[in-house]
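Morning F.,

Quick status update on the modeling queue. The single chain you submitted on Monday has been processed. Sequence for confirmation:
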Amino acid sequence: MALSGSLRKVASKLIKKFGGTVTYRQVAGGSYNATTGTITETETNTTIKGVVDAVQKQELNELIHESDKKLTIAAADLTITPSLSDRVVISSVVHQIVKINVIEQDNTAIAVELFLRA
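Structure tokens below.
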């Protein structure tokens, strides 16, 4: 447990120091409007620090495209569990989450990688 706790703290410190500010937008489905045929969504925004990177060639597959971005967030800084229905706003551009990777040590989340598509 000591190693995973230390890694969580280090990841949080490094990402806060070197990361940029992004908005994590948690999206919850709301009610269905029978007249318009649409579902209203409830959005909750949280400002967090994260490191944005380009997707590496070895990460490309049928789901991850070359134009996608990868956002790394310290797991200790997240108060919610990321979902594919959520979104991330970077420099006023809203990105869809297409894949979530959790980096773990001893079954403890250290960091979360979100693969994003604009």
